[in-house]
């Protein structure tokens, strides 16, 4: 699946990990979270190979400028889809890469039979929240709980 945006951003569903992709993913994950461990090559390969995971990258002029993970899985009430770890390189923000990634993930979730797509975003990520709202996401009246293991 390759999708192009009007600003020359191409979104690709990753099917194979290369050293160049791995290097770009390490940099993007570091921009996303200062507490996340460095992404190992074999861990990225496992993500890409996992049946319930789709990894998308956004590229412009052959440079990887963004990444998104879509998790889809069956539960008794239907197919669930979650967007996670959306990141666009600081130098490429405002390029349309974020919207292109989100649209590609939503299309893929629909293709896989999901009726909804969920995601979380901290209120402090104002630009990200605006992006999700522009993409049609609505804030839900729900609580998210986390148990640290």
From TrEMBL:
Question: Is-annotated flag, keyword Ligase?
Answer: no
State any single GO MF term.
Answer: acyltransferase activity, transferring groups other than amino-acyl groups
Annotated N-acetyltransferase domain ranges read 12-149
Keyword terms of this UniProt record: Acyltransferase, Transferase
Q: Which InterPro entries match?
A: Acyl_CoA_acyltransferase (IPR016181), Bact_Acetyltransf (IPR050832), GNAT_dom (IPR000182)
Q: What is this protein called?
A: N-acetyltransferase domain-containing protein
Organism lineage? Bacteria, Bacillati, Actinomycetota, Actinomycetes, Micrococcales
